[in-house]
Specification:
The complex is a heterodimer. By secondary structure, chain A is mainly α. Chain A has 2 helices and no strands. The chains are: A mainly alpha, B mainly alpha.
Chain lengths: 51, 245
């Protein structure tokens, strides 16, 4: 198993690549979900202000 | 059977359709990533010249291809919005830009991490690398220009022009390895006689599809928020279940 993670000496490069891609995907998904939450909140606030 | 193809070009009906599609694309992407990564790391053999470092390819190549392709799709949507004055096309262009920029960042980052052990340098001012960096700047320019103009329709038009003019960069990236002497290797996927092991091709294809579905899911989710934002004064938005709460 440790041999697998060592990537024959290229661990930093290989896991650095996949790690960053994963991090970017997680952040983007969180941002998109957050944006939806905020947008819906604002729509409700706007509606309440009109009433 | 008559299908009204224009039905889904209206933001109100597309909003609902996109909402139904998002979970399908998201799950397809997760499953494809799982299989793709398994083949990339456990089935594909160690490369004779690059040892294990070559496994960076399975994320680098799909990210790079998608960063270029998303740009073209974005430019086409922006152009449609400009010419036909369709609101949804412009919203799609706006929704694609951040994802495209992130894929360009992944392409550049994984390229640097691959370049260091293979070429001995994180970065070289090579034609392929430089034109990909310009692609990232074009995405950032599109996003910045769009958000700097308050009136959304005017922002759409200005940003569309930037997207269309910038699309000239995409064939430059693609053909750069043929046109100039570059350090970057040539095309990985060839239509005739590729030299790659079958499992490497499978892994590459699966990772590519996984990234595609990821892009569909995340862009559709983002465009739904953009639709709500820009259609906020309409009756159909006010009547949505999620807004009524």
């Amino acid at each position: 198993m440790s041999e697998f993670f060592a990537m024959n000496g290229y661990a930093f490069y290989v896991w650095g690549s996949y790690g960053l891609a994963l991090l970017i995907f997680i952040i983007e998904i969180a941002l998109v979900r957050h944006k939806r939450k905020i947008t819906l909140q604002q729509l409700r606030l706007m509606r309440d202000a009109e009433e | 059977m008559a299908i009204n193809w224009f039905k889904y070009s209206a933001p109100s009906s597309f909003y609902g359709l996109a909402g139904k599609l998002v979970p399908w694309f998201a799950w397809s992407s997760a499953i494809l990533f799982a299989i793709g990564l398994y083949i990339s790391f456990f089935v594909a053999p160690t490369d004779a010249t690059q040892s294990e470092a070559y496994r960076i390819m399975f994320i680098h190549v799909p990210a790079s291809i998608l960063s270029m392709f998303i740009y073209l799709v974005m430019a086409v949507y922006a152009a449609l919005g400009l010419v036909l004055n369709t609101r949804l096309s412009s919203m799609m262009a706006t929704a694609l830009a951040p994802t495209g920029a992130l894929f360009a960042i992944i392409a550049l980052w994984t390229g640097a991490l691959w370049g260091k052990p293979m070429w001995g340098a994180w970065w070289v001012w090579d034609a392929r690398l430089t034109s990909e960096l310009i692609l990232l700047f074009l995405y950032l320019g599109f996003i910045a220009l769009h958000s700097s103009i308050d009136d959304p329709r005017r922002a759409d038009r200005a940003a569309a022009l930037l997207a269309i003019v910038g699309s000239v960069n995409v064939p430059i990236i693609y053909f750069s390895v043929n046109w100039w002497n570059t350090l970057h290797q040539g095309a990985t996927i060839k239509f005739t006689g590729t030299s790659m092991h079958v499992s490497m091709q499978q892994a590459l294809l699966l990772m590519m599809l996984a990234c595609w579905f990821y892009v569909f899911a995340v862009t559709l989710m983002r465009v739904r928020s953009i639709i709500l934002e820009r259609e906020r004064n309409t009756q159909w938005v006010a009547e949505l279940e999620e807004v009524k709460l």
